[in-house]
Structures are given as C-alpha cells and as structure tokens.
Write a structure and sequence with these properties.
alpha+beta; Transcription Factor, Stat-4; Glutathione S-transferase Yfyf (Class Pi), Chain A, domain 2; Immunoglobulin-like; 4 domains; 6-stranded mixed sheet; 4-stranded antiparallel sheet; 20 strands; 14% strand; acetylation; phosphoprotein
Length: 743
C-alpha cells in the first residue's frame, strides 16, 4: 500500500494536520494523482543536487502533462483547470530553482511519515498534547471573532464621522449665510429663529463629536486589550510550536491566520488614524468652548501610533528558521562557509509595502554572546520583502545564499575549546528593517532561534543535541548563555522528542516498549520515569557505563545506520531495535526454534544484530547472537539479503540458515521477501557472462558454532568466519551447490 493510501485512511484529526502543509507550493491534487510516482523518486537527494532536481522537475511536468491528456479525454473541466494552473506554477516558480520543489516535496513526504507514525502510537506524548490543547483552539476562534468585530466597529465609526462631516458642512453653510446678512436683517424674528436652530445644531455637533471620539476610544481600547492578551498569547504559542516543529515535532501551522488578524488590526488602526485626521480637519473649520476634539484627539492619536508601533514590531517574524539545504532535518546547525536559507515574514500584509521594505541580515549583532568566536555573513545579506515569491502572497523575504564565515582572532583562542565547547556555543542571526508608511517610520528587529556554528560535520551530532535540549527546555528565543547552566529536562518529554527524531528522520517513531528501553538506558532500572528529570551531562556528555561513548552518540549512530542502510525494514516495523539482551531472551525462550528478532547493538556504535532461539538435544533452550553488522559491512551486502542467505556451520553438519520466523511468528520470507535483491539461484552461469571462463560468485554470510567441548566463554556473540576460513569454504562451495555442500 502506498504511503498516500495510508494517509487517506487516517482519522480526521490527523488528516487536518496533513491539510496544513499542502498549499500552492505543492498542491494536494498533484500528490494524489501522482502518488506512486512521487514516492518512487529520491527527492531528498535531489534537494542537495541541482542537476538531479532539474531532471526530477522536468519529469514531474511530463507526469502532469500525461494526467492533463487523460482528464482532457474525460472532459473533467475542473481538473483540467487545476492541472493547467499547476503546470504553469511548476514551470514559472521552480524552473530557476529546481532544488526548492525537491525540498518541499521531501518535507511533505517526511511529514506524512511522521503523522502516520504518530497515528500508530497508542498514546500521545505530553508535548504534543499541550500543542493540541482545546483551550488554545478556542482562543484562536475568539481572536478571529474579536478581530472581525473590531473591523466592523471601525467601519461603523467611519459612517459616524461621515455623518458628523455632513452635519458640520450644513452648519457652516447656514452659519455663514446668516453672517453675510445686513445688520438690520439679523434682528428679524426669522433670523432669531434660525439662530436658535443653529444653536441646537451646534449642540448636536458637540454631542456627535463626543460620541465619535467615544467610539474611537472603544475601538482603540478593544485593539489594545486584544493585542495585550489573546493575540500576544497566540503569537507566543505559534513561536513555541515552531520551536517544537524544528526538533521533529508536529508541523506548526496558524501563521496565515495570524497574518489575517495582524493585517485586519493594522487596517483598523490606520482607519482610526484617518478618522482622527478627519476630526482635526473639522476642528480647523469649527471649534468652541468645551470642544472635545482638541482635548481627546492628541491622546487617542498617540495611543493609535503606539499600538501601530507594537503591532508592526510583533509582526516581523522568522517564518522558517536557518537551515542548511544539505541537512533539512537539522535546522539551526550551521557550518562555516556552507550556504543556509532563512525566511522572514511581515504579518501585516499591505499592498503599499510590496518591495518597499529592505531587510538586512547580521550575525551576533549583540556582541554579548558568550562565545569567544566571531562570525560574519557572506553572500546577499540585504533583500526586499515582496508578495511575489510566496505562493500564498504573503509579504516575505527568503535569504538563500548566506554563508557564515569565522573571523580570525588572536592566536590560541581556539585551543581552549573542547569538542563540547563549540557545540554548546549559541549564536544569533539578526534581521533589521524600517517601515515608512503614512507618515510613520518604524524600525523593526527580530532574530532567529539560537544557532550552533560548526566547522566540521563530525560536530553535527552534538550540535543537534544542543538544539534539541535548548528548544525542549525553554521558550526563551534568545538565551545565548543557556549552556552556562543548562537545566534538567523532563524524561517523559525527552523520550517523546527522541521518538520524533525517528519519525521525522527515518519515517517511523518509537513505541512504548522501545522508549522504555531508552529510559532504562538513561536512568537505570527505575520503576517510573514520568517525573524523572534528566541532566544535560547524562544525555550528551557522560559516557554510558562501561562504554567509550555517550547515550546521544550511540542513538545518533543508530539513526544514521537506519537512514543509510536499513530504512525500508525500519519503516515496515520489522526491526524491534531497542531491546536489551535480557529482554530478548525472555521474548524468545518460549518460541519455536529458529524464531529471531533484530536489535541494535548496545556495545557497538551503529550496529545491528539478530538473535535466534534454538533447542538442544536434551531439550534445553539456547540463544545465539551474531556479531553486529555495521555500516561498512552493510554497504557491501544489503541486510535483507544477509537474513536470507545467512548460514551457520555446526560441527561437521551441512551449512544451514537458522533464521525461520521473525518474532513473534512471521515467516522470514513473508516479512523480508519484498526487500531481497535477486535470488542466489538467479546468478548467471559461466557460459552466461561469467566472463573468461570464471565461475560467478556470491557473498554469503556464514558463522561457525563450535561444539560443546570448545564452546567459547561468551556463546551469545557469534563471529562471522575469518576471511581465511571463509576463503577455504568458498573453494568447496559454489552458488548452485551451497545448500548441500559440506565444510
């Protein structure tokens, strides 16, 4: 079943998450129509290879054309229209930057896998529950409702100002008419009656002026209260969701809704400002004792300007945090002299601002950073915000060619920095601009979340650990001295984030049993870890008991192993992975001989092994584990083929494969058959291309189990035969006779 078919079977709450990340950048109809083809392409590799990305983009357009021909024959007008629009988008938007569409599709596929993994988990973690709080959703609806009400109130006040303007014009006309009369005419009874009418009209004008000012004051107060409370909380919640999404959590949404609220509030404030300007015009034409305009208008205008300043300052956000295109799952880790991308958005979307705001990027602008190292940004670091580059028309700017470069410092300054010192140094990318609009000049500044600068990719794992720990532990966006005294983290939340590393990076999260094993590895045999607080040192700096590496280095090596060598098997859920030797024996002891399971090595970095249960002649149960396979050996032979072809020689018996059933009782070939490469029996015969009379050969993994008299002290680890022994064995075994050959 395709990944897209699995997505379509999800519950509605998960489908809503999927709906959030499909937009005009990559329309969902294309994902649906080309599901199989899209999933068969390597978009992640294309995201880092422009030539490959261009080929995939051209092939994608060809696929769209084929679908367009098909629906044209079916005369499906709506789909024809949509496909033509998509084709135009692909050709126009991505032709000059094909890697961008590769990144988008790669991210969408990865996010689908994360959601599928989350849907398969029996219990939601504490962090994800907090992000999907019903109180938060209710507040979002309240904010949108209040913003709409404020907009309506401002528009209604416009009508009141217009009525006041008409009333004053009538008063001016009638008053000037009387003033133009001769003195004798002014004493007539008719004129006296008109004067009384003018006085009544002036009283009405005074009442209406007070009423309009009162309504304007209420609108300003409502905007002030909304900005101070709910809107600020909404923005902070979005920033927190962004932090969590950056470390593998659920995709954060809601920025378009925030943009709508910010824009409507800005429009309302500018509308109120125009109303106050109109009142000032009315004041120049008519004033009187007790006139409320000269008393109240300056205070109201000052408040409006103050709210506009704050609204604009809060609206300048980092929409997508700094990230190297070569490592899309590791944002905020930047390598010197390697390009990274970052995107900013102004949540106040006004046409007057298109191409009028120039944003400047700098690094470590505030030199109060705790690091001794200093950096500068190379590349295009000044760009104009516009509404043309974003598919949704937002006012944004994306820097795509920035490179951090380390500045030379005094000799020996780096010598005092250990391997962890560099990856615990936090830096900040800052952005500044100026908005000039309707007589207002507003300086805006914002910063990225703290980033870690590395000079070698070997520092990437520890740097990413720092990013995880920071964003898990604090919602402070700029605590650059965080690692001077890093706080402990809740183990239950940390385990949830670790599961996200697997769901976002390798497509399948961890279940409760796997997380329990990690918890035991971190804190020992404790009964409950719900309230346990784990220190930063224990997570990333202290070696595991009896080992030469830390917990995080061990886990990161497993992620790398899965990603590069056993990804399909992991996604299928056939690798138990995180299970201790003690637990695996409990699981296997009552199973049919030949039942095996796959687990990650606890003693070797990036190793995977398999253990099977066997039964001796006396009825006793015994267990055998092969020496872990690392990435070097898996590069030579796929793991599924190893499981298929693995042979054991016991005493002088015929070599045989002891692996029969994947735990608990799945026939091996049923579990792994679709991942096998060509069968050994399909190897060509000498006459079919063995070449120059040579007999074709195949690699076959073989172990030798010694008899009881010479059994080693640690029978749990079976070493594959040495090269010399294996060479002797191959002299006597051919690919076609391997099943019946003897040692």
């Amino acid at each position: 079943m395709s990944q897209w078919s699995q997505v379509q079977q999800l519950e509605i709450k998960f489908l809503e998450q999927v709906d959030q990340f499909y937009d005009d950048n990559f329309p969902m109809e294309i994902r649906h129509l080309l599901a199989q083809w899209i999933e068969s392409q390597d978009w992640e590799a294309a995201a880092n290879n422009e030539a490959m990305a261009m080929i995939l983009l051209q092939n994608l357009i060809i696929q769209v054309d084929e679908q367009l021909d098909r629906v044209s024959q079916e005369k499906n007008l709506l789909l024809i229209h949509n496909l033509k629009r998509v084709r135009k988008l692909l050709q126009g938007k991505y032709h000059g930057n094909p890697m961008h569409i590769a990144v988008i599709i790669s991210n969408c596929l990865r996010e689908e896998r994360r959601i599928l993994a989350a849907a398969s988990m029996p219990v939601q973690g504490p962090l994800e529950k907090s992000l999907q709080n019903s109180v938060v959703s209710e507040r979002q609806r309240n904010v949108e409702h209040k913003v709409s009400a404020i907009k309506n109130s401002a528009q209604m006040t416009d009508q009141d100002v217009k009525y006041l303007e008409d009333l004053q014009e009538e008063f001016d006309f009638r008053y000037k008419t009387i003033q133009s009369l001769e003195q004798n005419d002014k004493n007539s009874a008719l004129i006296k009656q008109e004067m009384l009418a003018l006085q009544a009209m002036l009283n009405t004008l005074d009442y209406k002026r007070k009423e309009v000012l009162s309504k304007i004051g209420r609108v300003i107060h409502e905007i002030d209260m909304l900005m101070s409370n709910m809107l600020t909380e909404e923005l902070l919640d979005w920033k927190r969701r962004q932090q969590i999404a950056c470390i593998g959590g659920p995709l954060h949404g809601g920025l378009d809704q925030l943009q709508n609220c910010f824009t409507l509030l800005a429009e309302s404030l500018f509308q109120v400002r125009r109303q106050l300007e109109k009142l000032d015009e009315l004041l120049t034409r008519l004033t009187y004792d007790g006139d409320p305009i000269p008393v109240q208008r300056p205070q109201l205008l000052e408040k409006v300007n103050f709210l506009l300043y704050n609204l604009f300052r809060n609206s300048f956000v980092v929409e997508r945090q700094p990230c190297m295109p070569t490592h899309p799952q590791r944002p905020m880790v930047l390598k010197t002299l390697i390009q990274f991308t970052v995107k900013l958005r102004l949540l106040i979307k006004l046409p007057e601002l298109n191409y009028q705001i120039r944003v400047k990027a700098t690094i470590d602008k505030n030199v109060s950073t705790v690091s001794n190292r200093r950096f500068v940004l190379c590349g295009t670091h000044v760009k104009a915000m516009n509404m043309d580059e974003s598919a949704n028309g937002s006012l944004s700017v994306e820097f795509r060619h920035l490179q951090p470069k380390e500045m030379k410092t005094s000799a020996g300054s780096k010598g005092n920095e250990g391997p962890h010192m560099v990856t615990e140094e936090l830096h900040s990318i800052s952005f500044e601009t100026q908005v000039c609009l309707y007589g207002l000049t507003i300086n805006l500044e914002t910063s990225s979340l703290p980033v870690v600068m590395i000079s070698n990719v070997s520092q990437l794992p520890n740097a990413w650990a720092s990013i995880i720990w920071y964003n898990l532990s604090t919602n402070d966006p700029q605590n650059l001295s965080f690692f001077n005294n890093p706080p402990a983290a809740s183990l239950s939340q940390l385990l949830e984030v670790l599961s996200w590393q697997f769901s976002s990076y390798v497509g399948r999260g961890l279940n409760s049993e796997q997380l329990n094993m990690l918890a035991e590895k971190l804190m020992g045999q404790q009964v409950s870890y719900n309230d346990y607080q784990l220190s930063w040192s224990k997570f990333c700096k202290e070696h595991l008991p009896g080992k030469s590496f830390t917990f995080w280095v061990w886990l990161e090596a497993i992620l790398d192993l899965i990603k590069k060598h056993i990804l399909p098997l992991w996604i299928d859920g056939y690798i138990m992975g995180f299970v201790s030797k003690e637990k695996e024996r409990i699981l296997l002891k009552d199973k049919t001989p030949g039942t095996f399971l796959l687990r990650f090595s606890e003693s070797n970095l990036g190793g995977i092994t398999f253990t099977w249960v066997d039964q001796l002649e006396n009825g006793d149960v015994t267990f055998h584990s092969v020496e872990p396979y690392n990435k070097g050996r898996l590069s030579a032979l796929p793991f599924a083929d190893i499981l298929r072809d693995y042979k054991v020689i016991m005493a002088d018996n015929v070599p045989e494969n002891p692996l029969k059933y994947l735990y608990p009782d799945i026939p091996k070939d049923k579990a792994f058959g679709k991942h096998y490469s060509c069968q050994p029996s399909e190897v060509s015969k000498p006459s079919d291309g063995g070449g120059k009379g040579y007999v074709p050969s195949v690699f076959i993994p073989v172990s030798k189990i010694l008899n009881d008299s010479t059994e080693p002290h640690s029978p749990s680890d079976l070493l594959p035969m040495s090269p010399s022994v294996y060479a002797v064995l191959r002299e006597h075994l051919s690919p076609t006779a391997i099943e019946s050959a003897v040692s």
